[in-house]
Amino acid sequence: MSRVKRVIGPIVIIVCIVGLFWESLSFEPRDGLWPQGIIAALFLLCLSLLIRGAKQENVEEETDETPSGGRGKVWSAIALTVAYLFVSEWAGYYITTVFFIFTLLLVLGERSRVILSALPILTTLAIYAVFFLFLRIPLPSGIFF
Amino acid sequence: MLALMLSGLASAVHVGNLLAMFLGVLVGMVFGSVPGLTAAAAMTILLPLTFVFPAEMGVLFLLGIWNAAVYAGSIPAIVLNIPGTAASAATSLDGHEMAKQGKATRALRASIFGSTVGAFASALTLLFLSPPLAKLSLMFGPAEMFSFTLFGLLIIVTLSAGTLVKGLIAGLLGLLISAIGFAPSGSIRFAFTPDLVDGFPIIVLLIGLFTFPEVFSLIREQKSVVDAGSGALLTEDSFLLKLKDWGKNAGNFIRSSIIGSIVGVLPGAGPTIAGFISYNEAKRASRNPQNFGKGEVAGVIASDTANNAAVLSSLVPALTLGIPGSVDAVIILAALTMHGILPGPMLFQQNALLVYTVFMGVFVCNIMMLAVGVLSARHIAQLTRFRSSVLAPLIIVFALVGSFAVRNSWFDVFSAFGIGLMGYGLRQMGIPLAPMVLGVILGPILERNLYQMIVLFGERPLDLFKLPIFLIFMALSILSVAMPIMRSVKDAKRDRRLSH
Fold it and tell me: Under 8 Å CB-to-CB from B417, ≥6 apart: which residues?
């Protein structure tokens, strides 16, 4: 793991917890003490991780056997899921789910026509049966369905 | 008592009761194995159905759901590294590693046998030890509960062998997340939106932390679960657990059953803590502790035996004192109350046949659970063969809809995904996620009891030294930190000596 990669994580955590510490100053002293104690301990541990990470030499990634395009597919899946979450609230959960599964299958390299056509529809029907018909949990209907 | 037990058994094997238990086991299996759906949700939804049942049939139906759901939570924990319920979080530590090595069937069978042994142990506890254990639960005040929870939390040290700093960071992040929402005094902390006033639901956190990092790893590797672990699904497995597994783990079964039965009795502790404590003790007692976390069958047995033992034993204070120790126990009490039966010290006198029908029915229910679990293990294990391109979209969709089902809130869906991204980032840093779950679960219990302990003993702290249970757990807590440190110092010295 490169030195930059090793220090980014602790820095992100430190920035977040410093923000939370700032927020905790507005609490009543007895309510603020618990999170402040946790944040202080976290700060010290992250600092030690940061210093250790910065001191270590760059090491070649020994066991990184990620196939080509693997990372790209992860980022595509994340982007698609974010889009799915926003669109399904607006367009309707069920209709969006069919398109989401179909698109993600394609992005992840699935080429079987049977799976591409059956899986999105069958999964959505199963969710409809379990959540809407059996459990009576209304999923967002949006402008379509 | 023997006559009552026999009458109870005769009543429990009545066709109607058998059908109710079988239906309960099936419903519990479905709810437990889908992350986001809990035993409590299933029991609440189906509680009105028990109106039309006789009291014992209704209670047996609910117990079937509860017991099977806690077991079934281990199925996705083993196969996909996604615990179906919080109680199965410790099972995934070794269960999924076994699945990656192609031993999913063996892990699933270890899980069902562990669950059955645990459930039998807690049924025996209910039958014979209810009154003394109920008294024990009353001996746990805030100071005792604080020291016990602290002991549970320090399991982080064991879970983070070799990466103590990173494990502690994960545990503290979990504690910090658990501080969101109501403080013990009633004021609200870190609730940046009204949805956070009650904090993050534990199931949403579990779905986020375990599902998405695992899915993204599968996508990155572009392989099935077994291929990603460089294994192959082994099918030439024995139908039951191998004899050597029984022999090697006899002590593990007994110890985990005792731990689960005792922890289950304590109010607020529950199956999750029982699973982690038992896993920790199994690792400590093992001759090969270094194998834990790498696919050790004893880890699966310890966790699943204890979490199922804790399920029924949490009914001890509920039935004998009328004090429910968990949400699920509240639902059982509600079912009894709806039939005009009041739990408490008089329950055993006034409704002896009902009590013994339920107790004996639990044994029958466990046999049903065992049969379903053993027969289905090999088929469920086939899931680990699925390509990541097929599995990933399904897991993402079910995880998101499961997180919605917790509170019917779209905010929870976004939260689960956000927590998942955070978990993926932490995993890339080499930070283990299991200590974080422990921190989230134990944080509120630890803080509440610390707060109450300060109120009670703030002006006379020396009185704490008069509490034996408090002192025992504090000593155990100190030992659980000191021993691994001493061992690592000793190992370092030995390595240095060998290198010279």
Answer: A81, A82, A85, B208, B212, B400
Q: Tens digit of pLDDT for each residue in B352-396? A: 888 888 888 888 988 998 888 888 877 777 777 778 888 889 889
Given this model, what pLDDT does residue B272 score?
83
CB-based contact, A9 to chain B, within 8 Å: yes
Give tens-digit pLDDT for B471-498: 998 998 888 778 777 777 787 788 778 7
- Domain definitions of chain A by residue range: 3-55, 70-134
Taking an 8 Å cut-off on Cβ atoms, the answer to whether A139 and B389 are in contact is: no
Tell me which range, A102-116, B336-350, B426-440, is most confidently predicted by mean pLDDT: A102-116
Pick among A3, A12, A13 to test the B interface (most B CBs inside 10 A): A13
Please list the residues that pair with B188 across neighbouring strands.
B182
Q: The domain containing residue B13 runs over which residues?
A: 2-499
Contacts A138 to B, Cβ<8 Å: 408
Query: Which positions in chain A touch B421 (Cβ < 8 Å)?
Result: 78
pLDDT over 70 for what percent of chain B? 93
Q: Burial, B125: exposed, middle or buried (Cβ in 10 Å; 0-12, 13-18, 19+)?
A: buried
CB-CB under 8 Å, B176 with A39: yes
Nearest CA in chain A to B163: A49
Mind listing the pLDDT tens digit for each residue in A35-73?
999 999 999 999 998 988 888 776 655 455 566 677 889
What's the DSSP call for residue A133?
A: I
- Looking up tokens 């204070």 gives B317
- Reading the block at residue B428, the tokens are 């890339």
| Cα distance between residue B143 and residue B385, in whole Å | 49
**Predicted complex ipTM:** 0.89
Q: What is the DSSP string of B73-109?
A: THHHHHHHS--SSGGGHHHHHHHHHHHHTT-HHHHHH
**Interface touch A46/B413, C-beta < 8 Å:** no
